[in-house]
Write a structure and sequence with these properties.
The chain has 224 residues and is α/β, with parallel strands linked by helices. The chain contains 6 helices and 9 strands, in the order ααββαβαβαββαβββ. The strands form 2 sheets. The chain has a 7-stranded mixed beta sheet with strand order 5-4-3-6-7-8-9. The chain has a two-stranded antiparallel ribbon with strand order 1-2. It binds S-adenosyl-L-homocysteine.
Length: 224
Amino acid sequence: MSSLPPDLEARYAERARMVDEQLAGRGIAAPSVLDAMKQVPREWFMSAEAADRAYLDGAQPIDCEQTISQPYMVARMTELLQLRPTDRVLEIGTGSGYQTAVLATIAKAVYTVEWHQRLINQAAARLEALGLRNIEYHCGDGSLGWPEQAPFDAIIATAGAPDIPNAYREQLGPRGRLVIPIGPLADQRLVVLKRGDEGFHETEVLKCRFVKLRGAHGWRDEDD
Ligand code: SAH
């Protein structure tokens, strides 16, 4: 990671074009999401050598054999969370911290949980350098959520689980929204779960492919 402060202007034109073509051009409509993704420099969350690939239309490798999600997927998942500026959000799978930055730009507070200490340390340094201070970090098993900080207005998992972990239902506040990839890796679906006055309502949105959610309510190593 570079020790220089982020240069927000350097790739502004590339970023604006990504937002127009890959996001707005494919139906992302929420102004808060489009604005946030025009602001957050994706290259800042990648290695210096990978910076030229920051605005390509795909996921990219990061440390610890994980990936930074495709910009469209970050936008779509964020839009599905229907965030308001007063919302408290739980994010499972900090990874590079890019999705965290987008959430923290829109919502009041983000609670992010990552399995790998190395990734969360790197992400925290990057997010702090961008001036984002409304984020709490926890290294551990995010398949359990973060009970001490619950309830949340929104929960987003950026790693795929076998099924919806019960902890997420329990930690979702009134009218809360959860977005998560579930199912076997070869047949993963992005699912939205909403807590309504009369219980939960689940919708399947699209087919997808995310890395595995580990831990107690995720995949076991022997599932590899
Ligand atoms: N939103 C991230 C995507 C990271 S990939 C980005 O755009 O960069 C998913 C991340 O989930 C990986 O960093 C992986 O280490 C993490 N992960 C997997 N299982 C986890 C668990 N049980 N708890 C917390 N993080 C987990």
